[in-house]
Amino acid sequence: xxxxxxxxxxxxxxxxxxxxxxxxxxxxxxxxxxxxxxxxxxxxxxxxxxxxxxxxxxxxxxxxxxxxxxxxxxxxxxxxxxxxxxx
Length: 87
Description:
mainly alpha, 3 helices
C-alpha cells in the first residue's frame, strides 16, 4: 500500500490527534477515511457536472434556463419584489 506525506497546520493536527485518541483510531486511519469520503463526493460532483454539460449540449434550448435569468431570480429572493421563477 503506498504512503503519502502531508503537511497540516497546528490546529488541524491537534484536532486530528484529539479525535484519534477519543476514537481509539490512528491518525492515518482517520485521514485516509476523510480523504476517501472527500474523493467520493467530489468525483460524484465532477461526473454529474460533466454529464449535465453533455446533456445540455444536445438538448433543445427550451429545456434550460440561462444562468443570468436564474441569478436575477435568486437575487430577488427575500426582497419585497421577488421575481417569478424563470421558465
